[in-house]
Amino acid sequence: MKTLRVAVGLSLAVLATLALGALNVPAPPDFFLLVVADMARGGAAVPAMLAGLPAGLLQDGLFSPGRLLGLHAFSKILVGYLLATVGARTVVEKPVAVGGLLTGAVLVEAATLTFLIWVLRGDFLPPAPLPLAARALTTGVFGGLLYAASRVPWRQRREARRRVRLN
Amino acid sequence: MAAPTLAERRPEIFLAALLSLCLVTLSLQVRRPGGRTVGEGWLLVAVSPFVDVVVSVRSGFREIGTWAESRRALRVENRALTAEVSQLRGELLRLRDAEEDKGRLLELFGALPSPPPGTVPARLIAVESSGPFYTALLDRGASDGLQLDGVVLARGGLLGRIIALGPRTARVQLLSDNTAAVGVLLTHGTRSGRAAVAKGDGKGSMSIEYVPTIEPVEPNDRLVSTGTDGLYPGGLPVGRVASVRRNKAALFWEIQVAAAADPHGESLVFVLPPLRKSDVTSGPSVAERR
Predict the structure, then answer these.
(1) Which among B85, B111, B137 is the end of a domain?
(2) Best of B15, B23, B27 to disrupt the A interface by mutation (most A CBs within 10 Å)?
(3) How many residue contacts between A and B have a Cβ separation below 8 Å?
(4) B236 & B184 share domain
(5) Alpha-carbon span B41 to B88, nearest angstrom
(6) Using one digit for the tens of pLDDT, what is the confidence trace for A79-133?
(7) Which domain, by its residues, includes A36?
(8) Which of A45, A69, A78 sits opposite B25 (nearest CB)?
(9) Would you tell me how many other CB atoms lie within 10 Å of the CB of residue B224?
(10) CATH number for A36
(11) A117 touches chain B (CB under 8 A)
(12) How many domains are contained in chain B?
């Protein structure tokens, strides 16, 4: 079930990223990170990391300019582990907190990527602060909204509306 | 608080494995300016200690081989040098012996400046004592011109006479033999000597009897052969007085004589031809017999 969920999530992430890229939307959210974060809910570290691996590889294969296969996989696995660890030790219920956590995750991932490139290529290339901040913010906001939406009891509401119509 | 078990550490182990996999994948893709990938660089760094170990082991084996080879060569050289040292040592001993012989010969020639015709040099190869009998063996015999009753003269003086003769060896009766005797002249100070007979005591030295106590005799008085005994020529050193004491009757001295020539300390001797009858009557000296 989880595998299917990851597969669907990644497919949607690819589609969304491609669509936003085609529309030239500045600072699009990191949809792949959202899939990883979804698997890290409840503190499950191994599923989060296992989701981070294909997510990162997809991101590398499709969207990384340097085509360094494994760069985002590394950062996504690490972020997945960190999110799962935080989820296991704290109770994150409010969407704002989830959004904040995702914002921080984007920043951690950016730092990890910078560090990796520095280690591998020998060049210290920190990302531009404003685009990074915008991306972190959009990811946090979008993730918080998704989380809030996922907590709404859509079925009960639909049932209630149907009962109201029938009456 | 108990340390977490391996099962509890499963996520961390999983994380480390996945990150390592990614890192290896990345390192194999990134090329450094030298054309080598980062992974190759890391691999070389990781492998270099093993390479160093292999190189060290190989060079160690090579050094051991070199050491063994040089050790073998050194042993061979050592063996050759040892043999050479032994040979040189033997040669040195021979040279020293020859040098000593030369010294002895010079002393002999000093003692006997003009040896009479028929004098034969010989080497004293053994000294034997059997009870009261004292003899010595020479390395020359009849084939070398030695004759019975030939007079044997050592560096210090008279040693004895030949009593048995073989083709290549000769047996000498030493003066210390119990059955040996020689006519001697006792010289005290500047006075002319008194004739006496020195007899072997069978104990390695000689003694003189029947010298009246009215004759002045003192230790260190010299004894030379008289040449009147028919065996030994006159004028040869025989020994010196070692001790003097009166006998029981108090009429004669009991004189102990220290031989002039020690057979144990001599290796080279001269063998003079035996005394002729005509020589006995006149009692000639060695120099006169030439």
Answers:
(1) B111
(2) B15
(3) 51
(4) yes
(5) 66
(6) 999 999 998 888 888 899 999 999 999 999 999 999 988 888 778 888 889 999 9
(7) 2-166
(8) A69
(9) 22
(10) 1.10.1760
(11) no
(12) 2
Please give the single-letter amino acid code of residue B211: V
Of all residues in chain B, the one with the smallest CA distance to A69 is B26
Residues forming beta bridges with residue B197, ordered by sequence position: B183
The pTM (predicted TM-score) of the whole model is 0.47
CA quadruple B79, B83, B88, B93: dihedral sign: positive
Which chain A residue is nearest to residue B39, measuring alpha carbons?
A: A120
Count of other CB atoms within 10 angstroms of residue B272: 25
Give residue A105's identity as a one-letter amino acid code. A
Q: Do A49 and B14 touch (CB under 8 A)?
A: yes
Q: Which two tokens stand for residue B14?
A: 């999983």
Domain with B169, as residue range(s), is 120-284
**Pair (B266, B171) in one structural domain:** yes
- A interface test, pick of B9, B21, B22, B28 with most A CB neighbours within 10 Å: B22
Query: Same domain for B87 and B207?
Result: no
Question: What sign has the CA pseudo-torsion A148, A81, A114, A10?
Answer: negative
The string of pLDDT tens digits covering residues B55-88 is 899 999 999 999 999 999 999 999 999 999 999 9
The Cα B113–Cα B106 span in angstroms is: 9
ipTM: 0.81
